Amino acid sequence: METRAHKVRSALRRQRVTINDVASELGMTKSTVSRALNGYPDISDTTRLRVREAARSLGYRPLANAQAIRTGRLRAIGLVLQLNEHDRHRPFLADFLAGISQAASEADWTVTVSTAASDEDTLRLLCKLADEHKADGFILPRTLWEDPRIAFLRGAKVPFVLYGRTRNSDGCAWFDISSEAATQEAVERLFALGHRRIGFVPGAERYTYARLRMEGYRAGLQKCGLAFDPDLVSEPALNRTDGAASADQLLNLATPPTALVCSVDRAALGAYEAAQNYNLQIGSDLSVISYDGIEEGELVTPKLTTFSADVRDAGRRLTALLIERINGAAPENLRQVLPATFVARGSHGPAMRTPAELATIISNAKRQVEE
Fold this sequence. Notes:
This protein has helices at about 5-15, 20-25, 30-35, 45-60, 65-70, 90-105, 120-130, 150-155, 180-190, 210-225, 240-250, 265-275, 310-325, 355-370; strands at about 75-80, 110-115, 135-140, 160-165, 175, 200, 260, 285-290, 305-310, 335-340, 340-345. It is of the alpha/beta class. Helix content is about 45%, strand content about 15%. β7, α12 (about 265-275) and β8 form a beta-alpha-beta unit. The protein folds into three domains: about 5-60, Orthogonal Bundle (434 Repressor (Amino-terminal Domain)); about 75-175 and about 310-340, Response regulator (Rossmann fold), CATH 3.40.50; about 180-310 and about 345-370, Response regulator (Rossmann fold). The radius of gyration is 26 Å and the shape is elongated.
């Protein structure tokens, strides 16, 4: 005699939509539908979208365990976030994760997120997650010029994509924003406004973006016919305190710059403090253009002129690239670089002071403090 529980299970089995149902609805083969749902690169974007929409409409959901056994994949994306990074508290993180989660959900993938306290801890977690097969591949944010995470995953033959670029690009897929082009544009904009002494506050050299933005600064000078002066490049700065110290270093030159380009917004906010100490008005006495687009830049007076990137979109794009990489696409075919967006605000303007006039104002401010 059939039990009630057996009847319920039988009803549920009859109601469950299978991949055959989706294939029949679309008039496609089961193989095509399967490859489209799993993001294989040989399936066109149009077909992939059509299959996913039909699957959602019919209520198809793959059985994760059966799929993992059949394909050897969990349909899981791995991400290790390092809590000692300089921008760990930014809205960047929430937007970045939202983009990843949205794209993963739309593709019926999951996201495995771990947090690490140091470079060593990050490597330990990557090794652990890979060995225990907790993820099919990894997104690596905030790339380094010499990145041990890349070396490990490359050696372990675990798929990965980079948010950023790196020195050795062998086997690397990435999505990045051309911050070097943004930094060059910043120099060119300041030059067009009459600035001829343009200082630069770099980021930490271990990060790839810092090297690229330095290249952009030098390229901008060359484009404008300005000689590179190493004295106009301060010590690296990634936060307000160091940014204030770096700006102070440049403003105390015998011939100070009339404008600053900062590698990150947090350092630029420190430049505001340094300027205030010398009674300099940002935007008129001293122009500042930076990069990142953090919310704090809108809270200072005048608001910070910067370049920004859509990090939610970056998360979505990286997820799509990683799924393609996991499904066998060559990394050399999975490289995207987009421009940053210029956000014009009040911290930059025409050169209103000569370097000599700035030096006099700064000297007088220092004398007042001493008295």
